[in-house]
Amino acid sequence: MKLFLKTAVIAFAAGWLFYEVGMFLPWLLGPMFVLLLLNQFTKTELYWPKILRTAGLVLLGVQIGSSFTRDTVALMWLDLPYMAFMTFAIVGLSLGLGLLFQRMANESLATSLLGSIPGGLSQMVVIAEEVESANVTVVTMMQTVRIFMVISIVPFLAVFLAGREAGELVPDTFVFSWQPFIGAIGVGLLIFWIMKKVRFPAAEVLAPIFTMALVQSFTGNHLVELPNWLVALAQVFIGANLGLQMEQIREKMNVRMGMAIIVNNVLLIGFSVLIAYLLAVLLPEYIFLDFFLSAAPGGMAEMAITALASGGDVALITSFHLFRLFFILLLASPIIAFVVKKLDAKTKH
Question: What is the mean pLDDT of the chain?
Answer without folding.
Answer: 81
